[in-house]
Predict the structure.
Amino acid sequence: MIWRPALAALLLALALAAAAGAVEPEEQLADPALEARAREIGQELRCLVCQNQSIDDSDADLARDLRRIVRERLTAGDTDDQVMAFVTARYGDYVLLRPPLRAGTLALWFGPVVLLVAGIAAIMLRRRRRVAAEPFSAEEDRRLAQLLDHEKAP
Amino acid sequence: MRRLPFLLPLLLLAAMAVWICGLLLSGRDPHALPSALIDKPLPAFALAALPGRSDGVASTDFGGKPMLLNVFASWCVPCLTEHPVITKLGQEDGIPVLAINYKDNPADALAWLRRNGDPYLRIGADADGRTAINLGVYGVPETFVIDKAGRIRYRHPGPLTPDLVDTEIRPLLAELAK
């Protein structure tokens, strides 16, 4: 079974290739720890040309330039937060794929939860009201039994 | 009143439809992003001239009076469509227009200027696009309005149109010139 290790190696290579997105081999840093940090940052930054891809996933020229800048800053000794601040100072919060929690973004973050809770509360209120409906009177019970008997008879 | 719970979703949908139609018909580009540098000083830069020219452009060239900074490239088709608009602003309104030539082949840029006219007071070549990134440029063309104090007051991503010049740029320039 010589092909098994070969297949495993191929699958591993394919898995790694998928994770790299549009990051070209010559862009990557020699230091694997720095490259891993660059990848993490790259996944968080929006490509402003395509707008729905991260810079790691995009083939756009600007995305490649930004990937290069991220790697340059990391090599120069910046922390991850400093790199993010460098990019947001130029492109604004929109460049972040995960919007930051601020007064202006409260509705964005908590709106869905508030709507869900409000919906559940509305349904529970309606339920309670329905349960409180009056029980049948003796006359209604008799008539109901009569109707049911009648249905069985023929 | 009993119908209200059933009518409410319909009314909400109608309100949304009107709002979205308004946005679509306003002619605004939904992909246009606001600049993070509005009201901030122009970041420091100094770009060399295109070969055979002696100008170049630097952040210190701005200030004293309101000026425009236009980012263009010879390979950019929308730049060609806005070129007459920029030319008109520079020549008829007498607004100094300075330019950054973005990631261009210098020979192509010079030929483009010969062919389409050169309304620019100064041009700097941004071969690697780094100055543009410091300005938050994410595509060409882009146009900035810089005030007397050298601060960025306005940025338009995409080609300038005569309509945009009349409704936004001229009023702003008039106010900044005071």
